[in-house]
Write a structure and sequence with these properties.
It is a single chain. By secondary structure, this protein is an alpha+beta fold. The protein folds into two domains: 178 residues, no CATH class; 159 residues. The protein has 16 helices and ten strands. The protein has a five-stranded mixed β-sheet with strand order 1-2-3-4-5, sandwiched between helices. A five-stranded antiparallel β-sheet has the order 6-7-8-9-10. A hairpin with a 4-residue loop joins strand 2 and strand 3. The two termini are 37 Å apart.
Length: 399
């Protein structure tokens, strides 16, 4: 390790109250965190199944189920004649209600044939919808329960828009609010153990899941203040990251049309040669001074990013304004452009669960397959659009 790297690390750990607060949160006991539930979709579905089931041991009866269904119905885009009324949902006894997990691959199915009610809840944490799941589930429910009133909900961390317009988009923050309201209003009928259990779950969600969680805010502060220190830490950590870095670098160098750039263990960078016309106005990023780079980010998972780095503001503004006109190509084109790094396109290639759970060879196979698909199908679209910037950046390149 070089002397300047050591100095960066010393600055990182010396009198760092934000880091100490993060460590304190992570050291707090939480059974859900201890059991590694944080990012496991099936575990979250199991907890919600327990809470929604009127016959379970929480002592709430149908209270939470009733509040949940009324909330979904109040936001449902379906015709009023196709869904149960708020009044009915509030008054029904739910004495024969079943809450089933993984019924025909549906995460949660709430069903009460005596009431003529069926509800689908599809849950996503680190994964996304695939293979037209939502439409398939709705079609299945319509076939199996043609006479039932129906509700459909799509639960994600940040309220992702469902591809099927029949679904209500839900966030984990909304689920937390419903749980907290339940604890507040029904505390008198709950045992201390159940209250503690529900509060531990709420705490875990607030700290680890929701977009504005305390952990995320602290990590953002640490990243902004100690970006280089984190690069040094990831570069020297003794895990599979180095092997994956070398594997990705090898994949990149085998493609003649790609030009590698400066990389560390956690960030592997390159640029298509056809795009290497951007002005070399970068600062405090890579020795090449490139402003735009493709980047693999493998901080406990693997993402592909297209990044506008720090540098001359006039050049950054010109590129940002162009990118903002192409939201159909770059999935974060409409997000805020930060003064230093702006990732205007991000794709998850390997989820956190896969990165941590799969062995190195399995990860290599997944990465190679995804990389081949990227080179063949996606990269041509990116380069075709970005090449339109060639003429507008020519003068800057010469400046």
């Amino acid at each position: 390790m070089q002397d300047n790297d050591l100095a960066v690390l010393e600055s990182f750990v010396l009198d760092n109250p934000v880091l100490e607060r993060l460590e304190a949160i992570l050291d707090d006991f939480n059974p859900f965190v201890a059991l590694r539930w944080t990012r496991q979709e099936t575990r979250h579905s199991s907890f919600l199944q327990w809470l929604l089931d009127p016959s379970e041991t929480h002592g709430l009866g149908a209270y939470f189920l009733r509040q949940f269904l009324k909330y979904i119905a109040s936001r449902s885009p379906l015709r009023k004649s196709d869904i149960p009324s708020i009044v009915d949902l509030d008054s029904w006894p739910y004495s024969a209600t079943l809450v089933q997990q993984e019924w025909n691959n549906i995460d949660l199915l709430i069903r009460d044939d005596s009431l003529g009610l069926v509800v689908v809840l599809e849950n996503k944490v680190d994964s996304t919808e695939h293979s037209s799941q939502l439409q398939k589930y709705r079609s299945l429910i319509e076939q199996q329960f043609p006479q039932h009133k129906k509700l459909f909900a799509y639960l994600t961390i940040n309220g992702s828009i469902p591809t099927d317009e029949s679904y209500v988009s839900l966030t984990y923050a909304e689920i937390v609010k419903l749980i907290e309201e339940t604890i507040s209003r029904r505390n008198h009928q709950l045992s201390p153990a159940v209250v503690a259990f529900m509060q531990f779950y709420v705490e875990m969600i607030r700290r680890h899941i929701v977009e504005d969680s305390e952990i995320q805010k602290l990590c953002d502060q640490i990243y902004k203040a100690h970006h280089r220190a984190l690069e040094v830490l990831f570069e020297h950590r003794p895990d599979k990251a180095l092997m994956i870095k070398e594997f990705l670098e090898n994949l990149i160098t085998k493609i003649p049309s790609l030009e590698p750039d400066y990389s560390v263990k956690s960030y592997i960078r390159f640029i298509p040669k056809s795009l290497d016309f951007f002005p070399r106005h970068g600062q405090d990023w890579t020795p090449s001074k490139r402003l735009v780079l493709f980047e693999f980010d493998q901080a406990s998972m693997l993402k592909l990013k297209i990044v506008l780095g720090p540098g001359r503001q006039t050049s950054r503004d010109r590129i940002q304004q162009f990118i903002a006109k192409h939201p159909a190509v770059f999935n974060r084109a409409s997000t805020k452009c930060y003064p230093q790094w702006w990732s205007f396109h991000i794709e998850e290639w390997i989820s956190r669960k896969q990165y941590e759970g799969n062995d190195l060879e399995e990860l290599k196979q997944q990465i190679q397959a995804r990389f081949g698909e990227f080179i063949e199908k996606q990269l041509p679209n990116f380069t075709k659009v970005l090449e339109e910037l060639r003429e507008s950046t020519r003068d800057q390149q010469e400046a």
